[in-house]
Amino acid sequence: MTIESLKKSYRSGELTPRDVVKKTLGKIEEHGDNPIWIYILSEAELEPYLKRLESCEPSSLPLYGVPFAIKDNIDLADVATTAACKEYSYVPSKSAYVVELLIEAGAIPIGKTNLDQFATGLVGTRSPYGACQNSINPEYISGGSSSGSAISVALDMVAFSLGTDTAGSGRVPAAFNNLVGLKPSKGVLSTSGVVPACRSLDCVSIFANTTEDTRVVFDVAANFDEADAYSREMPQTQKSASSYFNFAVPYEEQLKFFGDDEAQLLFKKAVENFEAMGGKAVSVDFSPMLEAANLLYYGPWVSERYVALKEMIETQPESFLDVTREIVNSGKTKSAEDYFEAEYKLKAYKRQADLALKGMEFALTPTTGTIYTIEQINANPIELNTNLGYYTNFMNLLDFSAYAVPAGFRSNNLPFGVTLFSGAFEDRKLMDIGERYLRGVK
């Protein structure tokens, strides 16, 4: 299911939005044993969206009749937002700003998807609603925290979905389910109506099957929100990709694959494919990025998670999963002194990172060094989750835009992915380069 294929079917009269919604609900029922969804809209709740589309021409709306999924830490009017915690649940009277824009453009919200509780994790197993299973092999993790959002696209239930990305949640599930995942520049997609994880770092992300679908959704959703203090406008003029370019890769000794030899070979092949496109790989020191990554959970930014959930964790600590409670509580003891010391370090890392990437069109890393089974994660939840964030945790702290794309399969058919990243507001450039790469490897 892609936006373009739906548009063609609508224009020809081969399908109607009702037909597509019916098929979508059938697909959801087929995979009912996988806890992808926390809430699915009823026929009565879907009716107003369908009625409205019946009075419109398919060509009049960029997302006419396109079904999409919403991570359940993002508000949809009159539907409970749980953030995967029933005790936290509330029913918003209006949708998140981004959701409103997508619905105005003709998209149909199908429901709210499962996630690692309070968006705390990269695994997809930390939910009282159940551990989401990988769309290709159910023994493996789906990636998180935007687990259900990614799987709903990978299993062709919806054409695109919304996730959130603070530490990698919009990229890791893309890699594990053979999707593209856009982590926009901070503030370009409004976070009004989004349950905060780290308010100063949170991004709304997009999962899709194709770059073209991602572009269409991004063009609708990237709209300045005056009500969001963290909202930023995309510049009118944006950088375009060069035909011949330098791109950065980490020093060999800084690459980690955690024993996954096939992932190592697939990354090497991806580098070769970018070089075949006209690129030149330049090894650079990734120390500033890796040092910054350590600040996300071990520095004072974890206090933002505590601040966002302070009342609940103090009064109803039993409502949190053990691992979530441990992470959130770790932010309680951070001091102002801790914050400013870390802030000074981060400024230095940002300067060093920008200098390291000077003259580079983008940087390229694995999205993750490896993938784990659900059983492995359950046995060692903290360490293995940390491993998954090795290439992702620094991105928002250092104000980069990022685009995750598929980069081949292991012998067991599990996908591998790479991530392109660059400075803020270079989202469209990254999508252009990513698409050129994907066309070249097909």
Decide which structural class fits the backbone.
alpha/beta
Spans with pLDDT under 50 lasting ≥5 residues?
none
> Beta fraction of the residues?
15-25%
Radius of gyration: 20 Å
Strand order of the largest sheet: 1-3-2-4-6-5-10-11-9-7-8
- Summarize model confidence as the mean pLDDT: 96
What's the CATH class, please? Alpha Beta
User: Helical region count?
Assistant: 15
CATH fold descriptor: Amidase signature (AS) enzymes
Terminus-to-terminus distance: 18 Å
Could you say what the CATH architecture is?
Alpha-Beta Complex
Summarize the biggest pleated sheet: 11 strands, mixed
Number of domains: 1
Identify the CATH homologous superfamily. Answer: Amidase signature (AS) domain
How many beta-strand runs? 11
Give the SSE string: HHEHEHEHEHEEHEHEHHHHEHHEEH
Overall outline? globular
Which percent bin holds the helix content?
Answer: 25-40%
List the helices and strands and how they pair.
Elements: H1 3-12, H2 17-30, E1 37-40, H3 43-54, E2 67-71, H4 97-104, E3 108-113, H5 147-154, E4 160-165, H6 172-176, E5 180-183, E6 203-208, H7 211-221, E7 245-250, H8 261-276, E8 279-284, H9 287-298, H10 302-315, H11 322-329, H12 336-356, E9 362-366, H13 374-379, H14 381-388, E10 400-409, E11 415-423, H15 427-441
Parallel strand pairs: 2-3, 2-4, 7-8, 7-9
Antiparallel strand pairs: 1-3, 4-6, 5-6, 5-10, 9-11, 10-11
